[in-house]
Amino acid sequence: MTVGQQLNHLPLLIPEIDSLSHEEFLQLVHLSILEKISSLSKGHLRTMTFDHFENKGKMLRPSFVYKLAKSLGVPVSKTFSWAQACEILHNATLIHDDIQDEDEVRRGRATMWKKYGSDQAINVGDFLLVLAPSCLHQDPNARQLLSLFSNMTFEIVNGQANEMALGKFEQRNSKYFDCYLDCISGKTSALFAGLAAGVGFLNGSSIEGLKEIFYEIGHLYQMQDDIIDLYGDKKRGEQGCDIKEGKLSFLVALHLDNNPDHFGKLTRILLKPRPSTNKHDIDEVKQAFLEHTTLAKCLRIMKLRSSRIMRHEELQRDKNLHTMVINLLDRILTPLEDLEV
Known about the structure:
Elements: H1 3-7, H2 10-13, H3 22-40, H4 43-52, H5 60-72, H6 76-101, E1 105-106, E2 109-110, H7 112-116, H8 118-134, H9 142-166, H10 176-202, H11 208-231, H12 241-244, H13 250-258, H14 263-270, H15 279-291, H16 294-310, H17 313-317, H18 319-333
């Protein structure tokens, strides 16, 4: 179906936002993003940006906004522009992240930089970074939402910069896991906490409790992502992308803290140029993490942190929010159940 044909469905969905199902809400967010791209870009930029959204991915962020709004009793129409802005921001960061990490596959397709070159991919990412907050300009709560959005974006960029600096492994460190948590607090958890803060604000309730809960959920989401990268399938065409990129992942951080004598051997692989890192290197790292129980320890940490989240006083007071968080945690933890440890 062409973009024009998809956009023909837009007028049918907009008047009934509050009665839309979860899937219909996600479809409307996606179509509205395409409409904004169509209106505010032209020529090659429009073609490339449409190409990026040809595969819309899981749309986890707007899904999260919808479900949180439902659990808090917020009309989803009030959260619609917030869902759009956060989804566009997420896609902008993916495009820039792929350039920095030299990832060639995203969502089962060639990444923007691989298909159009780094220069043009930067243009698409920059366009989306500007497009995202524009979704909020006409919102009745524009000033407050834009403030939340700006703070969230600052944290994400800081987190990405920290991740790239940590990957240099210039000196031994006895607290790699702490450094890892500090990094993902900005890169991933800031977006989760920010999403929740926006919905909480629109509900007229205190946002601090929500931010605490979803900040921790953001940690779990990134930890899961790191494990799946090495032992599962992220639809990126290969396992071990984080190892090839020399990242301080969850597994790497915990392994170095518990096995400092492995620093030289592990960093020798992590600091290799990406094209030089082969399957043997990846298999060697995977085996080391299994033999020294690093994977098992990571999984145990995630279960403990999940249990701690569920004890948060905010979840004890709100049954609907409690149910929503249980379902979200299940979605994060279930893909890890079949891993052999």
